[in-house]
Write a structure and sequence with these properties.
By secondary structure, the protein is an alpha/beta fold. Helix content is 29%, strand content 16%. It folds into 3 domains: 6-106 and 179-451, TIM Barrel; 110-164, Oligo-1,6-glucosidase, Domain 2 (Oligo-1,6-glucosidase, domain 2, Alpha-Beta Complex); 463-540, Immunoglobulin-like (Sandwich). Helix 14 packs parallel to helix 18 (442-455).
Length: 541
């Protein structure tokens, strides 16, 4: 990979603007707050930031119900604040990726207000409207992705028709079968790229295409594949049923058009939220070289704490993917519980978070970090009277703790006011300022890992070779030219010894890094012993 692109070698850091940094004391993070923390991001270092939505919105789904695709919500600032953020980020060598929400908009968007005005409005077909089913009721059996919402259809009394919404009723689906709608959405991409944006994370990419005949989903299809998988980690069963409301072949046609718009500009990246658990289907979105550049792998995100299960996902990806396809890896984002909480709140939770960091940052592919993951943050504790999200995602969205509350007040450096969600209980020790001065912290581990990614081409453009190291150990080589880096991740609760000659055909090496903050670096002879839930990286000789 002599000609690797920046999005293949770089690390991308997700920012949830409401919870990152508040510049004006209203308790809600904003664009100016992000700008004030760019030096911190450059010190990690990361190569790009991905901003969750900051558009004007009624906030029924906290910005994923967009009322204006070409503006900034006053809570977050102004377009001038966005321009200042982009300029300052670029000055530090950090690229800017924004969230683009093409599946649906807000019911307060002018387009939908016009479409709802009458059946013959020119924008009526920009959305999906249908008459009631024979005998009355929803046009088909499709369900909202949000548990508890029920049918994905809401009846409009004035026109006597139902409109489709894959999520909340306040989020009507856009009709990507309509060429005028497609052209208008393409122009929103150009708007942001003209302002210097380096790419887009595309929300709910796999729902751009749906069965135009709106036929029923087959029996057994669940509304939320994430919840179904978490109940039993049966990705094969969840992914088996063909659906009518997503991943329709026309999705790929739409993406090729979107890619053509992005390619009008230089070196832009398209990243898809493709919530498909069948990796054979997922690979199709990045295989041809004219659709997405990257597609998030939620099969990986939703695995149990198991070396074998994570390895199976990674190995299957590499077996299915052609050379044109490039993987990306993440374990956390604004929709999923943090690693330090997801797999159990016990004495090993911090160790698991550190092991997850090493895995994501050393696999072949583009790593994504979610704000606070570099601090090994757990989920926040949100009491019932502070819950605001319809899908229960508040705990992973609690504000970033920048300073100890004992010094900065209850806002922990995130805000001087009352934070919109509670600061996590462990903020006194898990904050960025305290970890910055502690060489044993997760922040220091992250910086070392990111430094090694820049020092060793093996970790960015090198090959991936899995190794057989026992049932609780995930081990692999990253190789480039004559360089070989061995990564060993012990998912087990007991120490294990690894013979380098037997596992990797090496006589020894240099221990570069361990997730155990008490282990030093130095030469390794014929074997290495790992503690429980410990990961190491060794440069083999």
């Amino acid at each position: 990979m002599a000609d690797a692109n920046w999005w293949q070698t770089g690390t991308i850091y997700q920012i949830y603007p409401r919870s990152f940094a508040d510049s004006n004391g209203d308790g809600i993070g904003d664009l100016a707050g992000i700008t004030s923390r760019l030096d911190y991001l450059a010190s990690l270092p990361v190569d790009a930031i991905w901003l969750s939505p900051f558009y004007p919105s009624p906030m029924a789904d906290f910005g994923y119900d967009v009322a204006d695709y070409c503006g900034v919500h006053p809570l977050f600032g102004t377009l001038e604040d966005f321009d200042a953020l982009t300029t300052a980020a670029h000055a530090r060598g950090i690229k800017v990726i924004v969230d683009w929400v093409p599946c649906h908009c807000s019911d307060q968007h002018p387009w939908f207000i016009e479409a709802k005005a009458s059946r013959d409005n020119p924008r009526r077909d920009w959305f999906v409207w249908r008459d009631p089913a024979p005998g009355g009721g929803s046009p088909n059996n499709w369900l909202s992705c949000f548990e508890g919402v029920g049918p994905a259809w809401t009846f409009d009394e004035a026109s006597g028709q139902y409109y489709l919404h894959s999520f909340l009723p306040e989020q009507p689906d856009l009709n990507w079968e309509n060429p005028e709608l497609r052209a208008a959405m393409h122009d929103t991409l150009r708007f942001w790229m003209d302002r210097g944006v380096d790419g887009f994370r595309i929300d709910v990419t796999h729902r751009l295409g749906k069965d135009p005949q709106l036929r029923d989903n087959p029996p057994g299809v669940v509304a939320d594949t994430r919840l179904a998988l978490l109940e039993g980690y049966r990705a094969d069963a969840v992914a088996a049923a063909a659906r009518m409301d997503e991943n329709w072949p026309s999705t790929h046609d739409r993406l090729r058009e979107i890619r053509a718009v992005a390619d009008e500009y230089n070196a832009r990246v398209l990243i898809g939220e493709v919530y498909l658990l069948d990796q054979g289907e997922l690979v199709k979105y990045v295989a041809t070289g004219d659709e997405l550049h990257l597609a998030h792998n939620f099969r990986f995100v939703l695995q149990p704490w198991s070396a074998a299960r994570f390895r199976d996902v990674v190995d299957e990806w590499h077996a299915l993917a052609p050379t044109t396809a490039w993987p990306d890896w993440l374990l956390e984002n604004h929709d999923h519980n943090r690693v330090a909480s997801r797999y159990g709140d016990d004495d090993a939770s911090q160790a698991r978070a550190r092991l997850g960091l090493m895995m994501v940052l050393t696999l072949r592919g583009t790593p994504f970090l979610y704000q606070g993951q570099e601090l090994a943050l757990p989920d926040g504790d949100v009491p019932a009277d502070r819950v605001v999200d319809v899908a229960g995602r508040d705990p992973e969205r609690c504000p970033m703790p920048w300073q100890p509350p004992s010094q900065a007040g209850p806002g922990a450096g995130f805000t001087t006011g009352e934070p919109w969600l509670p600061v996590l209980p462990g903020a006194e020790s898990l904050n960025a300022q305290s970890q910055d001065t502690d060489p044993r912290s997760a922040l220091w581990l992250t910086r070392r890992l990111l430094g090694l990614r820049r020092d060793f081409a093996e970790l960015t453009t090198g090959d991936y070779q899995p190794l057989d190291a026992g049932p609780d150990v995930y081990a692999y080589l990253r190789c480039k030219d004559r360089g070989r880096l061995l990564v060993v991740l012990n998912f087990g609760t007991k120490p294990t010894r690894l013979a380098l000659a037997a596992v990797a055909g090496a006589a020894g090496g240099q221990l570069l890094l361990s997730t155990d903050p008490h282990r030093g670096t130095g030469p390794v002879s014929d074997s290495v012993e790992l503690g429980s839930t410990e990961g190491v990286m060794i440069a083999l000789t």
